[in-house]
Amino acid sequence: MKESYWVHRRHHLGTMGGVLQGLVLLLTPPLLIHGCKPIVINTWNFTNATAKAWEILRQGEGTAVDAVERGCTVCEELQCDGTVGFGGSPDETGETTLDAMIMDGTTHDVGAVADLRRVKGAMAVARSVMEHTTHTLLVGEQATRFALMMGFPEENLTTPASVKMHEEWLRNNCQPNFWVNVSPDPTTSCGPYQPSNASKNTKESTAKEGGNFSQLNHDTIGMIALDSQGHIAGGTSTNGVRNKIPGRVGDSPIPGSGAYVDKFVGGAAATGDGDVMMRFLPALVAVEGMRAGLSPHKAAEMAIYRVAQYYPDFMGAVVALNMKGEYGAACHGIDHFPYSVASRETDVVEVKTTSCVE
User: Fold this and answer.
1) Whole-number Å distance between alpha carbons of 79 and 337
2) 271 is in an annotated binding site
3) Where do transmembrane segments lie in this chain (predicted)?
């Protein structure tokens, strides 16, 4: 038998020995921790959502999956910051559409919906996708049709507030928007647009990346919950970004981007400029950082730094939680990023802040 490739190549590896050891570490899962201390962490200071999830974990009346679903649903019902749930972030036609995802770290099952229309409970619909299909993601009108089959009511997601937002946007010549390299000039005019002759690699096309996002216009509540049985779950819910092009989907319903959980390691959730962040799978990067031995804070920092290398003006943040109940966060483009935590250490919801990576 021929000698193995790695034995044959050993004399060429030199300093790569440490890298190989790291790969072995990444491929060798640690033991699953039982008897965990329950904890919930979520992006932003959406404390009502945290409190609902913590109530479920503290009383032992549900699993980590239950906590994430109910916690994020509270944010949908309360229309957190206008960035979650009905009546917020209308698209260019004035319609509010919803994205959501839920992931079970024990089974690695995922359910998600994107561009969901006329159904308010996006997180609950996402869980139905996880529990009643072998699919991962349903989108658009077909996602709505599925929701109606599952017994969810069809409702109008428009409110007086979202109508006002849309009307003001139209009066402002459709500013801001997400078009580049089209005519008429999207910085001064509404559409309909046609492709222009400008190169898509010009400064004008890249300068808008991240420019339409802020603390009141971003993707997601992202939540991670760990229950006393050692089960971990994660989820996201959002109405996307205001004035988006119809059909746009951000990072929230994408596993590894909006959120990611692994029963051997922990979980992470991202928020901010979903168009940019989904290109880097920051939640997955943070989890893999923890798998390699980084603290949750350092793992979140690494995920954020990777995005910032390419898009130094982007706005976003990552929260991370390991199976020991240790947590951390990192951000970019925000003065101080607030996130919410509840655990047995305090038995109340606390809002933490972290300063951002430069």
Assistant:
1) 19
2) yes
3) 12-33
pLDDT of 296 reads: 98
Q: Using CA atoms, how far apart are residues 82 and 216, in angstroms rounded to an integer? A: 7
The two tokens of residue 294 are 């980084």
- Asked if 324 and 347 count as a contact pair (C-beta separation under 8 A), the reply is no
- Asked if 237 and 85 touch (Cβ cutoff 8 Å), the reply is yes
Separation CA 107–CA 124 (nearest Å): 18
| pLDDT tens-digit map of 268-306 | 999 999 999 999 999 999 999 999 999 999 999 999 999
The answer to whether the annotation marks 273 as part of a ligand binding site is: yes
Q: Is 91 helix (H, G, I), strand (E, B) or coil?
A: coil
| Phi, psi for residue 332 in degrees, rounded to 5 | -155, 135
> What is the spatial distance between Cα 348 and Cα 340, in angstroms, rounded to a whole number?
10
Each residue's pLDDT tens digit, 24-51: 444 545 444 556 789 999 999 999 999 9
Tell me which of 146 and 12 has the higher pLDDT: 146
The residues that are catalytic are: 220
Is 71 labelled a binding residue? no
Which of 152, 103, 155, 150 shows the shortest CA–CA distance to 130?
103
Q: State which amino acid sits at residue 170.
A: L
Q: Are 321 and 267 in contact (CB under 8 A)?
A: yes
Helices (H) and strands (E) in the chain, counts: 11, 14
Query: Which own/partner contact pairs does 195-204 have at CB distance under 8 Å and 24+ positions apart?
Result: 204/180
**Which of these ranges, 31-35, 182-186, 241-245, has the smallest mean pLDDT?**
31-35
pTM of the model: 0.87
274 in a labelled binding site: yes
Confirm or deny that 185 is annotated as ligand binding: no
